[in-house]
Design goal:
mainly alpha; 3-stranded antiparallel beta sheet
C-alpha cells in the first residue's frame, strides 16, 4: 500500500526478482503511472540482459574485453562484427545483428558466411566466423544461449593460393641496385627509412616507433610499434606487434651508417637538441611515420625508373630473401624478422630456400 511522506508525496515499493524498487508521486494516479513505467524499464533491462539481440550481447561482450585486448585488435574485431551484423536475413526480415541471440540458427550463419564470401577472400571469411564463434562460446558459458550453432559451421575451403605460392614481393638484386642508385630515391626525405628497412627487415610501424634510446649496446631494440586506437587514430603502442616481435637486431657497418645519417638529418630538421626518448624516424612534418605516404613516394620512384611498383613491406621481404640467399640459417631469419613461429617464416620465404638448395645441389659434385 502507498505511504504518505511528510513532504506530501506518496511512496510505494514493489519487488522484482528479490530486489526492491521505490516510486514517488503527488497522487495515486501519478504513482500508478510511475510504477508502470518503472516496471517496463526494468523488464526491458531484463530482456536485454537475458534475451539480448546479437548486437546487444556483442556490445556487452566487447565492453568486458577492453582491458584485456589491444585497442587495435579490438578495432579490427569490431569491424569484423559490423560486417557480420549487417547481413540481411530474409527469413526473419531483419539484419543478423537484430536477431535475438537465442534464435540464431545454423541456417542464419550459413547465410552470413555465403554473403561475406561474395566480397572477401575465403581465409578472411573464416577469420570473421571464428571471431563470432568465440563470442558465441562465451555466450554459451554465460548461459545466454543453450547451444552454439557456430560449432556446426565448417570453414570454407580455401580457394586462394597459399602465401608461399604468392609470396611477398621481394626486389631482385638488379631492381634493388636501380632503386637505390636513383637520384630521386637518394634525395628523398625517406631515403634513410628505405635503407634501414632493407638492412634490418623491420616493419614500417616498428621503424616509426623506434626511439633514440632503443639504439644501445651495438644493437637495435625493437620494443613497440605504431598502432591504432579503437577510434582509428594512430599512436605509438606499448608493445610490439607480437611477443616475438620484441627482439634485438645487431648493428653492422651499413646499419650504423644509416643511423648516423638519420641523426644528422634530425639535427637539421629539429635543431641540435637531442632527446633520448624522441623518435629516430619521423614524417616530414615531424609527426608519426606513416606507410601510406612512403608507399606513394616509392611508386613515384618506380614509375621513374620503370620497375614494377612495390610497397614498404617489400623491403622486409627483400631483407629475408637476401639473408636466405646468403646462407643464413632460416631460424636466425625468423628471430630477426620477429615471427612468432618458424612455420610463418617458411610459409613466406620457403621458396627462396628451395631455390638456394637447387642451386647448391646443381653445383655439388661427389666423386663415386
Amino acid at each position: 500500500m502507498p505511504r504518505k511522506r511528510k513532504d506530501g508525496y506518496l511512496k510505494k515499493s514493489f519487488t522484482i526478482d528479490g530486489k526492491r524498487y521505490y516510486v514517488y508521486g503527488k497522487n495515486a494516479n501519478e504513482l500508478f503511472l510511475k510504477e508502470k513505467a518503472k516496471r517496463e524499464e526494468i523488464q526491458k533491462g531484463f530482456n536485454v540482459r537475458k534475451k539480448p539481440t546479437v548486437e546487444e550481447y556483442y556490445e556487452r561482450w566487447t565492453e568486458g574485453r577492453r582491458d584485456s585486448v589491444k585497442e587495435s585488435t579490438l578495432r579490427g574485431q569490431i569491424k569484423m562484427f559490423e560486417a557480420i551484423s549487417s547481413v540481411y536475413i530474409a527469413s526473419a526480415s531483419k539484419s543478423f545483428g537484430e536477431l535475438k541471440i537465442k534464435d540464431v540458427s545454423v541456417d542464419d550463419l550459413r547465410v552470413v558466411q555465403k554473403e561475406l564470401a561474395k566480397t572477401r577472400r575465403t581465409q578472411t571469411v573464416n577469420d570473421y566466423m571464428a571471431h563470432f564463434k568465440h563470442c558465441m562460446n562465451d555466450a554459451l558459458n554465460e548461459r545466454v544461449i543453450e547451444y552454439n550453432p557456430c560449432l556446426t559451421i565448417k570453414n570454407l575451403k580455401r580457394t586462394e593460393e597459399k602465401a608461399r605460392d604468392t609470396y611477398h614481393r621481394a626486389l631482385t638484386i638488379e631492381e634493388q641496385k636501380i632503386f637505390f642508385a636513383c637520384e630521386r630515391c637518394q634525395n628523398s626525405i625517406y631515403y634513410n627509412v628505405y635503407r634501414f628497412a632493407i638492412l634490418t627487415g623491420a616493419r614500417v610501424g616498428e621503424i616509426g616507433a623506434l626511439r633514440n634510446s632503443d639504439i644501445k649496446g651495438g644493437k637495435i631494440h625493437i620494443e613497440r610499434t605504431i598502432t591504432r586506437t579503437e577510434t582509428g587514430a594512430y599512436k605509438i603502442g606499448d608493445s610490439a606487434k607480437t611477443q616475438a616481435g620484441r627482439r634485438t637486431i645487431p648493428i653492422n657497418q651499413e646499419i650504423q651508417a644509416v643511423l648516423d645519417s638519420q641523426i644528422e638529418l634530425n639535427k637539421i630538421l629539429d635543431g641540435d637538441e637531442f632527446r633520448i626518448d624522441d623518435c629516430l624516424f619521423k614524417a616530414p612534418e615531424r609527426g608519426l611515420l606513416m606507410a601510406t605516404p612512403i608507399d606513394r613516394e616509392i611508386k613515384r620512384i618506380c614509375k621513374l625508373i620503370n620497375i614494377e611498383p612495390f610497397t614498404m613491406h617489400a623491403f622486409r621481404a627483400t631483407f629475408a630473401t637476401r639473408c636466405i640467399e646468403n646462407g643464413m640459417n632460416p631460424r636466425t631469419v625468423q628471430e630477426l624478422l620477429g615471427h612468432s613461429n618458424f612455420n610463418i617464416t617458411m610459409s613466406l620465404y620457403g621458396h627462396v630456400l628451395d631455390d638456394t638448395m637447387s642451386d647448391a645441389m646443381s653445383q655439388l659434385h661427389i666423386v663415386i
